[in-house]
């Protein structure tokens, strides 16, 4: 009996071995074929990735070469204008120039360069516009409300809207800065409202007093100083490392000195401004920035990355015959920002989508509007329509 059981078990084991060999004979080719297909797939995928990288590198090299040519062309043209200052340029989100010409501080032999900081003068009105837009969103107010809702003691405030102030059709006219006085806060506010001129609403008249008053609206809405709110909404989120108010960079060697001269090599005559004069430019001309930082703010603003795009559009709706609104001049294909402040002349030309543009900041006054006029001529040659 036991012998028969052993024979049976041996037969079962032998049968399993034979069956295993048979299955191996049948499925091995299939397994090999599947493994081969998998290897071919991996190789094909690898080759595709390699080709994609090669193509990207070739495109990058071509792009780099094009940008290098653009940089050389631009710098050559800027030198021909006798420009003194720094500039920064981007085309289709790719930086192509970031350099300077001449001295930022001739007596200390400090050249204009990437980190040089200049008064952005009237272009600061764009910063004030951004802060106003954000403050209105936070407090659920709008641009078509009268100024009297925020600053009731300003003359004719019931008939002037925040929008009309952005467009400079409020009728408010400039007044001279207080001589020999360094006013700030409530004392500055009282001086402004007691000395400003008031005209008819609806006619464009360029006047910084509109934006100076808007800084007080911003402070009223937020409960914060204009300077602190700027740092919270713009400077810190964007990581601006070469941006500060005049009172904070008096002794900073990266702050450029402004000069008045008939030739680009004459650095003898310096423009001076007192702290009182700078305080009077609150929100309209007391901010210093590098060209790269300035480009970054305007580009991110137009892209809707600082405040929502719906508010960006609201803040940039010029009406009537003026093309000015929110610190920018609106042309068919681009926006322009420009300022003049005692030897400083910042100029920005940028596409509406914020992807391409030029910032140039001069610190030597040769002739009126030298920087802006030169850049307007150069700009079309840099950004030709394909």
TrEMBL record:
It comes from the Bacteria. This is Beta-lactamase family protein. Keywords: Membrane, Transmembrane, Transmembrane helix. SUPFAM superfamilies: beta-lactamase/transpeptidase-like. Residues 75-321 form the Beta-lactamase-related domain. The chain crosses the membrane at residues 7-27. It holds the Pfam family Beta-lactamase. The keyword DNA-binding does not apply. It comes from Dellaglioa carnosa.
């Amino acid at each position: 009996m036991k012998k028969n059981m052993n024979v049976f078990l041996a037969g079962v084991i032998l049968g399993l071995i034979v069956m295993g060999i048979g299955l191996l004979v049948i499925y091995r080719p299939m397994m090999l074929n599947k493994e081969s297909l998998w290897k071919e797939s991996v190789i094909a995928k690898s080759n595709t990735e390699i080709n994609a990288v090669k193509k990207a590198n070739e495109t990058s090299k071509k792009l780099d070469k094009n940008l290098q040519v653009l940089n050389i062309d631009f710098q050559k043209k800027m030198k021909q204008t006798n420009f003194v200052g720094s500039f920064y340029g981007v085309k289709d989100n790719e930086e192509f120039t970031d350099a300077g010409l001449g001295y930022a501080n001739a007596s200390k032999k400090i050249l204009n360069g990437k980190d040089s900081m200049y008064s952005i003068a009237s272009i600061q009105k764009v910063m004030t516009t951004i802060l106003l837009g954000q403050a209105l969103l936070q407090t659920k107010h709008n641009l078509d409300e009268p100024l009297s809702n925020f600053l009731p003691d300003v003359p004719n405030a019931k008939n002037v809207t925040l929008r009309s102030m952005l467009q400079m059709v409020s009728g408010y006219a400039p007044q001279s800065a207080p001589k020999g006085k360094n006013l700030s806060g409530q004392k500055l506010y009282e001086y402004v409202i007691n000395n400003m001129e008031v005209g008819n609403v609806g006619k464009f008249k360029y006047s910084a007093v509109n934006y100076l008053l808007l800084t007080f609206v911003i402070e009223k809405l937020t409960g914060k100083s204009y300077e602190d709110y700027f740092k919270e909404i713009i400077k810190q989120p964007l990581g601006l490392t070469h941006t500060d108010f005049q009172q904070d960079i008096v002794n900073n060697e990266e702050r450029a000195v402004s000069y008045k001269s008939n030739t680009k090599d004459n650095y003898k005559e310096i423009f001076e401004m007192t702290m009182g004069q700078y305080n009077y430019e609150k929100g309209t001309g007391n901010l210093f920035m590098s060209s790269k930082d300035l480009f970054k703010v305007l580009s991110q603003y137009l892209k809707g990355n600082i405040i929502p795009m719906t508010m960006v559009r609201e803040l940039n709706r010029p009406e009537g015959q003026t093309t000015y609104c929110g610190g920018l001049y609106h042309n068919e294909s681009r926006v322009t920002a420009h300022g003049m402040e005692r030897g400083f002349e910042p100029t920005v030309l940028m596409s509406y989508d914020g992807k391409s543009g030029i910032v140039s900041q001069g610190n030597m006054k040769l002739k009126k509007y030298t920087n802006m006029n030169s850049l307007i001529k150069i700009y079309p040659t840099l950004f030709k329509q394909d």
